[in-house]
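Ticket #4471: structure export looks truncated?
Reporter: QA, pipeline team
Priority: medium

Steps to reproduce: submit the single chain below to the structure queue and open the exported record.
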Amino acid sequence: MSNKVLIISNANELVRVKPERVVYVESDGNYSTMVLHDKTEHVFTMNLAHCQQLLEEQLGQEAMTFIRLGKQLIINRGYIHKINVNKQQLVMSNMNVNTAFTLQASKEALKQLKTLIEAEKEREDRL
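Actual output as written to the record:
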């Protein structure tokens, strides 16, 4: 676990959060909602591209933990629990608590995510 803290600030609010607590960030136009593992939500007036840029700038290499999924989602790969391409569903959970988040994403985005996770697992198995 990292001791880095993500700081997101706008005109009215500043939030400090450990990156590993972030399950996903969902965008609706110029608003982005950051959802934490305890279902706490923080809404910011910034688009998803700006959120992604903040993650990369503040976390450096650790930003690889987060994956941009389509136009509306950034997800924390540590919470990926289930990918159902046909139903266009992604279930996010830390698997320790009975808390799960079911997200919608395009079939294409989910296929790419599934392929990425499978390839990473194959690389791990070879090492």
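Status: closed, not a bug. The export was complete when the record was re-opened. Leaving a note from the reviewer for reference: The first helix runs from residue 48 to 59.
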